[in-house]
Protein 1
Amino acid sequence: MELQPREIKQWLLQANQLFQENKDYLTSLDQAIGDGDHGINMARGFQEVKNKIEPTEYTNVSDVLKDTAMTLMSKVGGASGPLFGTAFLKLSTSLKGADNADFQHFAEGISAAGEGLKQRGKAEQGEKTMIDVWLPMAEFLKSQNEFSGDEIESKAKSAMEATKDMSAKKGRAAYLGDRSVGHLDPGSVSSYYLFSTLAEIVKK
Ligand code: ADP
Ligand code: MG
Ligand code: MG
């Protein structure tokens, strides 16, 4: 299976819908261990992504992802804008040169995104950040040879849930240290939304 530009677009537009619907929930997660703006950041950023990509005709997947990356970097304040921007930019770069994304290249792109996040955030796995969803997902995809929506969904969900027991070492939640244990990491929940909508797209 290959993802065409219009399917990548659909993925991002559906993700936007989830960010709008769950804006208050994401904000409440960030109120518990951060500064309470994560829902606002994601909803604003993805609304801008929608405004940019919806009216644009794309002939290759790389360009949709690049516009998404640039929009998130420039429109989202806080840590998450540059981080999600970096992830989408790495994915875009990995997929450069082909019109559509085949599984192999997509999987490599998610790995590159995970590595980009580590570098940009100076974070490791287990430090209660969005990296704790992206890296396990990259590992999982590398072990596969085709898109499997159900498995992508369940992998992303368990990775997101695992952040609850972690003690934050990076980002604002790190100020709380062990008091962050028992709370989900907001950026990991947003990352779950991205992979959960991807799962829906590949199931169609
Ligand atoms: P801010 O913390 O600047 O208010 P957001 O609330 O939008 O930005 O995003 C917070 C999320 O960003 C966290 O839940 C975490 O997943 C992610 N994050 C924060 N710092 C880092 C980092 N250094 N590396 C990776 N992810 C990070
Ligand atoms: Mg915040
Ligand atoms: Mg903030």
Protein 2
Amino acid sequence: MTDEASHLFYQTRNPRPFLERGEGIYLFDESGKRYIDGSSGAMVSNIGHSNPRVLAKMKAQMDKATFGYRLHFRTHPSEDLAAKTAAMTPEGLDRVFFVSGGSEAVESAVKLARQYALTQGQGSRYKVISRFPSYHGCTFGALDLTGYDPLREPFAPMMEGMPKVAAPATYLDRDNLSEDERGLKYAELLRDRIIEAGPDTVLAFVMEPVGGASTGALVAPDSYYGRVREICDEFGVLLIYDEVMTGAGRTGKFLAAEHWGITPDIVAMSKGFGAGYAPLGAIVAPARIVEPVLDAGGFLHGFTYAGNPLACSAGLAVLEELEEQGLIENAARMGDVLMDELRGLMERYPFIGDVRGKGLLTAFEFVADRSTMEPLAPKLNAYDRLVELAYERGLIIYSRRTRGGTAGDHFLIAPPLIITREQIGEMMAILHDALDAFAE
Ligand code: PMP
């Protein structure tokens, strides 16, 4: 940053250099210094920077019209993007509603669920069960679903009565159960919570299929996913997958849900869906949920910029690139390469207690002691230090304090899906260097 005060503020004052340009997996600041975008921003830039197809498609749309309000005109980019999204998501998810970001997508999913329940004579259902830790956004509704107390408490009370249930952080469990049994154990916690809340008051359960900012790429045991689907069906609870971070190919499938053959009732997407070219997100749902709402007078919801033709032209080009360049398959392949490299870190650095992830959404976690998994963060402020050491060396990684905000340090490594094996090597060399400096 400069010496002068800035008129701009976000969460904090921003000491970072000015961004000049991006190219593929790299970003350059104004001094010409190059950075590997090891977290795709905040898991956003899935197809890398300055993609020529996306830029060309956006420029062509700009020459025609950048905005036409959706209630005044249909547009080809929005219709085409909706059709392509429906084609790329599991069968049955074929109605698409556009938004401009992840929090908006989560809010939209919950409001659609609520209106659907009303059309079914189930007005008593309003509670949305979510998990802790979790992150679902910063608007009041999405924040109230977020299982992260330090972000929520200053704003309480928000929506009343939203129960939480533990996310399966099985790497912290010290029991004699098999992974399968652990998955089922955590799923049963959801069943208990539904019964406790009163099944006829529970509208939906919302979960990140692979944890993101909150839990650091936490994947549940395979048995968890199917059992959660069954439990939701048993009680008529709608299953909402928050795929804001995992969607659009990040985990090696278009939706993470596909890894377990799950069809959620509503899916929220953003981040990689616009891939940094446009603020864009969507909810995708089956006709059986959307049509009754439209028949009953319409969805009482919508954001002014939603589905604008410029954003949708970007989104359409992003999905075309994913498909034609085989980037989702590349995410699966390179995810395996990256995971092997991260496992190697555990051998070299005793303060790395766990590595995990799916596809190119991966993470490692710092601990003071591997046998107890006691976190390292509170003692050493490790979280900020490693991020800075990597940044100085030209690698951007993403970190959050975790475990419900009490402790823990995880670092997300989630490069653009275009990354090559050689570039993973380049990224790991910088990471090793930063970890060596941290260990000193
Ligand atoms: N859900 C998940 C799973 C996310 O990771 C995020 C963003 N980190 C959001 C919702 C909120 O998205 P946005 O910041 O675009 O509102």
Protein 3
Amino acid sequence: MSSRRLLLPLLAGLLLACGGGAPGTVTAYTRPLPVPPILAPTSVAGGVAQYDLTAAEGATSFFPDRPTPTYGYNGMSFLGPTLRLIRGQATRITLHNGLLPDVPPPMTIPELAMNVDGVPNGTTLHLHGLMAASTADLTPASCCDLLPTGGSASTSVFTPDQASAMLWYHPHPFAATGRQVYFGLAGLMFLDDPADAALNLPHAYGVDDLPLVVQDRRFNPDRSFDYKTLTQDDDGVLGDHILVNGVIAPYAAPAATRIRLRLLNGSNRRAYLFALDDGRSFLQLGTDGGLLPAPASVTQVMLPPAGRADLLVDFSGDAGSTRYLVSRPFKLPAAPGTDPDAAGPGSTLVEGNAFTILQFRVGATQPSAPVPATLATLPPPDASQATLTRQFDLELNGDNTINGQLFDMNRIDQTVKAGAYEIWRVTNFTPNIAHPWHVHGGQFRVLDRSTGPLEPNDQGLKDTVRVYPGETVRMLMHFDPRLSGTYMFHCHILEHEDMGMMGQFVVLP
Ligand code: C2O
Ligand code: CU
Ligand code: CU
């Protein structure tokens, strides 16, 4: 009790959010951080590593009193096992839908009804960040041909050939992605490049290389998830409880050494300004799609939904102490004449609230390997390679649209040539929401932001970039000659994507 009292100032926000210690609420930092198990291949036949994922319903005890109905993969009641794909290894993934057909296809916008496949709780699987032919995504367009309950579908055999990175997977059923991810369908997917072993970075999974899936959720009094019940939820669902790997306020117990944190913002809408509670600097090793050319020293990193960061925190001098991963408070830079606090100042349901996310109980001192000065060969992006510029306007005019249009599965919005370099300009005309812009099929490079300099987290290989109100972000796209098929681009606020803020492009040979 006394140690808890000492922590009260730190925990105030969290305890408030949890109801101040009423029966059945979470006592923070009493549950160890779970680490998702690594999924072994079902078989390796004919040189093809076969992985199987089964989505199913379950119940998860986020609170001590009653479990929450949830979804997960492969017997996990929430989230799924970690895939570790190997660069150069032929791979196939099969998805099985074991969800109950108990949720009707959602139709939130009448004009989108024609786009919604009438499959109750149909699902798909998207490999977020993977550079491959679109047939390597489960269901060709990864949105519209839904796998019904009891059904199975396989990717084509694909051979990953991209930089080592932490990618992720999640369902992508049009108009139902937000709900299925919220209920638990998501998992990590590492791409391992054997050549990177020479860097000698921490890589003991779950020991000195900690995968952290950060998500926010709201709960009803009966502990069921509260999803899309508020008017403001149409702008994206914000939660007031922060989960790490499916647990509210867990603790990790690393040694006092250099620890690698692999952060995924797996939230539907919320962005986080990640930092350590004592404000120390740490190194950013990599961004969404791979390692940076060199480690960058930072004190905080802003991650929009779907954003990832590969961080190295030095706990060498912290043996026996307690530290926290936090999200610092921030205000959205607002367009002139608008109110960034429109959702209600002081509410926990505002983007930019402070949170204490994860406790580190730092153990005994262990030696650290030196940090390499160079991590990857990645020349700065060269905009002069581009042969074409495309403009994407993100607007809220009643509906969330891209270039004035809602998603239509029967419309191809852009046609690009395999091998081409292009500049894509994305402008956010929504006054009070930052849209995380995401493109399927590979990684791009951010060229510039109209509002200021790039952050370290804008550097390197990216598949998701936060575009602030009133801002234009330019990125250099390279459509690898090996790409083919139809891909999506969209806002990664899942409720925006579900309500039509999405488009399709085809890559032609
Ligand atoms: Cu992670 Cu189309 O998205
Ligand atoms: Cu994606
Ligand atoms: Cu958006």
